[in-house]
Amino acid sequence: MYDVAIIGCGVIGAACAYELSRYDQSVVILEAKNDVAAGTTKANSAILHAGYDPAPDTWMGKLNVRGVRLARDICQRLDVGYEQCGSLVVAFSEADLPTLETLYQRGLANGVPGIELVDAARAHELEPELSDAVVGALWAPSAAIVNPWEFALAMAEVAVRNGVELRLRAQVTAVTRTSAGAFELTVPQGIVSARTVINAAGVAAGQVHDFIATPSFHITPTRGQYHLLDHSSAGIVRHVVFQCPNERGKGVLVAPTVHGNVIVGPDAEPLPDDQADNTACTAAGQDFVAQQALLSIPKLNLRDNIRNFAGIRANVDSGDFIIGEAPDVPGWFDLAGMKSPGLSCAPAVAEVASDWLANRGIRGVRKQNYQDGRTHIRFVEHTPDDRAALVAQDPAYGRIICRCETVTEAEIIHALHEEIPATTIDGVKRRAGTGMGRCQGGFCGPRILELICRELDMSPLEVLQDEDGSYVLDSLAKGGE
Ligand SMILES: Cc1cc2nc3c(=O)[nH]c(=O)nc-3n(C[C@H](O)[C@H](O)[C@H](O)COP(=O)(O)OP(=O)(O)OC[C@H]3O[C@@H](n4cnc5c(N)ncnc54)[C@H](O)[C@@H]3O)c2cc1C
Hints:
Blueprint: E1 2-7, H1 11-20, E2 27-30, E3 47-48, H2 59-77, E4 82-83, E5 87-91, H3 97-110, E6 116-119, H4 120-126, E7 136-140, E8 144-146, H5 148-161, E9 165-167, E10 174-177, E11 183-187, E12 190-199, H6 205-210, E13 219-229, E14 240-243, E15 253-256, E16 262-265, E17 269-270, H7 283-296, E18 305-316, E19 322-325, E20 332-336, H8 342-359, H9 384-393, E21 400-402, E22 407-408, H10 409-415, H11 425-432, H12 444-456
Parallel strand pairs: 1-2, 1-12, 2-9, 5-14, 12-20
Antiparallel strand pairs: 3-8, 4-8, 5-7, 6-7, 10-11, 11-12, 13-16, 13-17, 13-18, 15-16, 19-20, 21-22
Helix pairs in contact: 1-5, 1-8, 2-8, 10-11
Bound molecules: flavin-adenine dinucleotide.
């Protein structure tokens, strides 16, 4: 019997686990997929939004600024890729200026630090490649870019180190209650019992809620597509460049990434409920994103594209997060409708969940022996002297496996043996940054497969690209050698 079961290990479940792992109670995370951060958390704009967008009386408005501040501290503490680059929302005509003024006033009400309305000259000074059509902008220096999957992974790792149990491939398919009030969650491995449940199941949070509670909200999966541009485009923008929000969302952005690429997107396309995992890109969506982005940055070179991808938003009708105990199911706490700025708000959302547990008398006392912190060696970021020292310490640092991103064998071996180890090629990518460059894993993929087999004692035929079923090899040639 666990005190708390968290359903889902995206950034919201991971943030809850990290926060709760500071306290003395038993926590289990049940994640349907074979890795953490494998849902919406791995495919989004990767922006820590400053917090001027949501209305002040919403959960989003209340949690955004605090979430971003906590996220900055967590990224520093856990050595997560992060850069506070600031953001601009640009107006293309006088007609857009009232929207900027509204965002500015919301920003003031939400406590966004340093927010400022700037004229066209200042906007172009901040961002020289902006379109000449830009007549003004909203400048928010506190906005940041982050590595979203590392953010979630790092929090989950520290939680596991401090006693939280993570069960992967543990999709909850039914929930019942015992006469004593405990929850019984059905997963493929059997039944998991818990006194309380936190529902952080992302796009599936509505279905999971309905397993035990009266249906009260509906999630519309809403796809957003992106272009990712090569390092050769780096520098075309220095900040996150948004357009004025419209009925289709926050508008198409152009932004640097912490990996040195440029991200361009997203659009917003509602999908039928049964297509909540449809992350396919379409020609129409890609074209729309490209055309919109060129309005902001006309010199953008979309021929630098190295990858297209899509993520799925968990949109609810209210337009706000759904945070709270299900009225008819005491002990069941929903963290649903976590669309943007869910990534930005995650640590603050986790605090709300933690306070709820404290109010219910479930949260234990603070652990005395809590082990926070994490370091991540990125060979490429070291000075030549430091690199030499690393190679002297471990010769595997001298073997470059991913040549596009300069990732060494030692970093990959680390990824395969850390607290939540990678077991797939994309799992290594999310931890070590392999396959993120121009060749997109074409050259390093087979070598990573060999390392997975060697380190985890697996057959090449068992190795997955990413999700279960995505086998890399079909059969062995040359007599199985
Ligand atoms: C296109 C796009 C752009 C975005 N841009 C930004 C941005 O720039 N900044 C920002 O702040 N936010 C952004 N967001 C929002 C942000 O990505 C999300 O708020 C956040 O990732 C949601 O995290 P989550 O943990 O709720 O969901 P997820 O990451 O999807 O995690 C939910 C997990 O639950 C698991 N699960 C589902 N059902 C079950 C079950 N029955 N049993 C067990 N496990 C289950 C899933 O496998 C999944 O791993 C964007 C979203 C999209 C789609």
